[in-house]
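Student: Please help interpret what follows.
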Amino acid sequence: MNLYCLREGTVLKVKIIGELDMNVAGSLKERLDKEMNAADVRHLIFDFSELDFIDSSGLGVLISCYRQLAPIGGSVRIEKAKQNVYRILELSGIPKVMAVSSEGGDTK
């Protein structure tokens, strides 16, 4: 997994390349915590255009970020998810708590 972060004011944009599974979920969460605590981050935008796979550990990271930001009026959004990743997000119920769009532009 490769990770690229860009802070713009209160927004942290995160691009993940590769797979988000149990092997990398812990290190991703640590990095996101550092990035979010280093600035006044209130909104987190994930670019999943190059994410090939996500498992329950990766979903746990997304929910953890949501739980951290929601109480302060923040948000988490997922953009450009590939169809296979989008389907996993749908099945897990993620679109019920955060905005999710597919690479084709479908939004839930």
About this structure: Strands lie at 2-8, 11-20, 43-47, 51-54, 75-81, 99-102. The chain has a mean pLDDT of 94.
